[in-house]
Each structure stands twice: as structure tokens, then as C-alpha cells.
Amino acid sequence: MTRLRLDRVASQLLAATTSPAARLSRPSSISRSIPQTCRHASLFNTQPCQRRHQSTAASQAPLEEELVLEPQDGEPTPEALRGGPLPSPHPSRAASSAKLAALHARLSLSSKIPVETLARALVDPSADAHPKYNNANLAYVGSTVLHYYASESLIARYPRLPMSILFTAMKGYAGNPALHQVARAWGVESAAAPGEEVDPGLLQFDPMKPTVVMNKWGYVRAETVESQKFKSGKGLSGRVVYGSNPFGESSAAKALPNFEVDDGRNTKTMLLQNAPANAHANFVRAVIGAVHMHCGRDASKNFVKSHFLSRTLDLSNLFEFELPTRELARLCARENFEAPVARLESETGRLSRTPVFVVGIYSGRDKLGEAPGPDLDSARVAASINALKAWYLYSPGQVGVPSDTFAEDAAPWKPAYVDIGEIIS
Amino acid sequence: MEARPVLRQLTTLFNSCSRTGQTRLQSSTRRTKKALKLPPHPAAPSVYHTPFKFLPPSDPRRQAQLSSLLRSSTGLAPTAAATNSTTPAEREVPALGEKHQVPVPKFNVTREQVAEMRALRAADPTKWSVVRLAEKFECSKLFVMICCKASAEHQARERERKEAIKARWGPIRSQAREDRKKRRTLLLRGEL
What we know:
heterodimer; A: mainly alpha; Ribonuclease iii, N-terminal Endonuclease Domain, Chain A; Double Stranded RNA Binding Domain; three-stranded antiparallel sheet; 17 helices; elongated; B: mainly alpha; 10 helices; flat; mitochondrion (chain A); ribosomal protein (chain A)
């Protein structure tokens, strides 16, 4: 099997814009003179309504060709030619923005990443629908990079996590709320309203306009729409099969911003829930994408590790059990351990108002878990929960991840331990 | 310095005189709640510490803990709970009663007995209740409920009886039941 070339992936997305000098030398009025309807059409092409979602820029290619062929002779003023102000600040203003330079320095970004790219990362598709001037493409690259590193580190570090916990943990590391927090910690401020005149160092988005929800995989299964219509596929297996994003949510109907719908019943699910969080998260993903495109695979891995995977997420708080004692008994039967027995380790104040019992769960002569409780039964349930958490949260320690073998002189990959699956009780 | 306690007594006297009804004391609610809010004990075992039995065969810690390996395989050494006690009798931790253990299925009911169970339940569901059938055939109540299904009239009668019992409950008992449900939810979420 050939190696995945992560550094080559999606290199076509930035082909036209990686060299800022070339981009700046282009007369900006050409691409900016698209009529409004045409630009909205281009925006809707980037939405996930297409079944097989390929890279967003690839679908834009015909439009770009058409734009370049527009007449550029004559010498009218740029404002007259484009017929109004720009939707987002001109890229040439990026070099003179103090906020952008400060952000660039604060994140310790490499000098290979031009401030113009950082300025582009701050423009949400809702502010500027043109795919060459917003961050949709960069954010798509960044989200795939982030999801890849987050999922491989989670599975290698915690090989026994149940699927639902894995989905939630992915959301905790790479979901919109977490990335929103990261963006705020980076000190990114948002502009009151997008426009030509705002500082390029401010995040520009419009909560009232359609935008791109950046959490999908490559394509959406064709059955997803049907299953959403009939409210099926809501269980965990349905989330695994039909879930089109790494968090196990099927975003087909939810993220489809069908703004022509006049049925008030559907608007709540059709509209984006938290536009500022989505815009901030897309900015963060776009920065990851920019690091990946300009500095390479190793730099993006380090960036993801230091800014996202280093965040603390207490996985033991994510669990909720239904029948923990039975689940533990099923686990012991599956693994050929002796059946679990609840034993009373110690107790105090049995006849008082607030007794405390410490119950331990034993399998044979080994203790699996213990917990205190106000009565024997709750202590036993809590001890079973602790034992199950100890099983699910097993970690082999600092182990290698598959992306370590991308290096040229890397040792061959040794298969990591991954559990056979969760316990069915 | 001497004036402060006197002043406080005076103010409490004034307050109790001015308000005729009960006064809600801060010491009885806030402080009790605060006293009951205990952090987990620092010596409580962490769930991130995997028990020896849960380590997969590939884990190097399995080989490192030779004492645990020996104890687990031979079964001669004492339990892990009380390592500092002296005699083996003291080290044995008493098991909880049968009703606090996960029931082990016995698989002792034959096909003919199941038919008999169904016939009894269909003939007189009041006399042959689930509990009585479970006692008679020495199986669990769950197994009886899997085997037999009572008639719709009997189910309706039982439901009415339960509703009548619930109707007799006052606000305190209903509230206590709801609180118990909430505590159960919190317990299963690990928040209690």
C-alpha cells in the first residue's frame, strides 16, 4: 500500500493563492465585479447539499475561468467598475494592519505564512462569499488535519473508549465550542459588521447570512436524507453508519442552509445555531490549514499538538451508565474473569443519619473498583461504575501514532493495541 | 469590645419582635448544604489507574507487577484491599448479601415447567403472582416476566391498584420519591 501523502493532499486548493505577490499583482477589480446573484450561486455550491462533497475549490473552477476572461481594458475607477464597496478588506491592507501583525507574532507563526493568508483566514464565507477571498478552503484543509490528529491520538491513547465517548471526546477537542474558546484565547476580536473599511485583523462574519459548516467528512451517504426524514438512524450504530462528521452527527439536513424554505417549522433546524462560534472555529481551522499548506506536515502536527491536543479534557466525566452492575458482569463473562462480587470494605454510622459504606468490587482475588456511598446499593453501583471506567479508560501510556511513520527515517509501524469493542449488556 | 454581643442580642430581639412569623435561619440551610458538599477524598482511587486484571496481555506493566501476577494466578495471597492486616482471616473482606449481588442465571427451568408456569399464570394471575411463581420455580422474577404475560384485565386492575396507592401519598412522600429518582440519575452519571 502506498503511503498517504498528507502534504500533497489538497495542495490544489491554495495553488492560486500561495504566492501573495502574484495575488496582489492581479487587478482586484476583476474578480470583484461578479454580479450578486452569481456570487450567491457560487456560495450555494460550497454548501453540503451536494451528495459527494469534493473540495470546494474544485467545484469553483469553471467560475474562476469565467472571471479571468472578463474584459479588463479601459480605465474606469475601481469603485465604478465594481459598483460598490468590497465585502471584505482588500488584501493589500493586510501588511499595514497592526492587529494582524500582533496576532501573527502572538501565535509564533512561521514567517513562511504571510499576513495576507492570516487576513484571509479571518474572513468568513458569510462576510465574503467569494471562495478566493474567504477562509472556507483553508478551514476545510485545517479541519481534516485537526480531525485526523485528534482521532489518531485519542484511539492510540485510549484504545477501549466506547464509540459515544469517542465522538464526544472528538467534539471536546475539535468541536465548535472548543475551537471558539481557542480563538478567544488567541485574542481574536470580531468586527461589528463585515465590510471593506474594517481592520483586516478583525474576524469578519455576518450572523444573518449563510455560511459553511465545516465538520463534514468527504461525502454524505445518499441514504442519510431518507433516514433523517423518517427519524431513523438515531441510535449509536446509526450514528456510526450515517454520521457524516467526526462527532457522529449527520449534518445533511441540519447544516443544509436552505434559505428559500418558507415553512416556519423547519427554519430552526435549518439555521445555524451559533454563528459566532462557527465563525471563530472556522478561523481556527483556517489557521491550521494555513500552517499545513505553508509550513508542511510536521509543523501542522506540532501546531495541533501544542494548541489543541494539549488541552485538558477529563474523559471520566463523560460517562453515563444505565445498568453498570450488569455491564460489569457481562464484561467479566466476556473476558473470562470470575464473576464480580461486591464486598464491604468498611462502614461507619450504619444507624446514624448519614452512614458511609465503602464497597469494593472483586473478581476472584483482584479488586476492580471501590467507592463510598450512603447506602449499600448506591455504593455498589458507584463501585461498578468506577470499575467500568477503569476498564474503558485504560491507556497504554505514551505510544506512537500512525502519523509518526510519515517521517523519512521512521521505524516501521507496529500495530497498536485497540480493544475489540464495547460491552453489550 | 463588650458592647458587641450585647448589641447582637439586642438586634436579634428586635428582629424577633418585629417579625411575628418564623424566621428562616441562615445556619440551617446554607451551612448544612455547604457541610454536605464534600470533595472526593484525596486517597480515593483514580479511575485512570487500571487494575491489574484489566491490563491487556501486551501491556508491559503486566510483567512488571510480578507479585500481582503470582497472586492472580495461584490465588494464595490475600486480597488487595487489606495488605497491612496480619492474619488471612482478617484480610478476607466480607461479601455483601445475596440481594446486593448481580444474580447469576441458573438455567434450571425446563420447557415443561415453563408451560406449567404459563398455565398457572393464565388460570389465576392474582394468586400466582410473579413473585410467587419465581419462588415456586426458583428462578428470577425477570425470567417469569419473560415467560408469561398477564391478561389485559389483570394488568389494568394492577395499574388501578397502584394508582390508588399513589393517590394516598402526601406531598412529602411524593417529593421524596422524586428526589430518589434524581439521586439515581446523578449516581449513574457519576455526579453524586
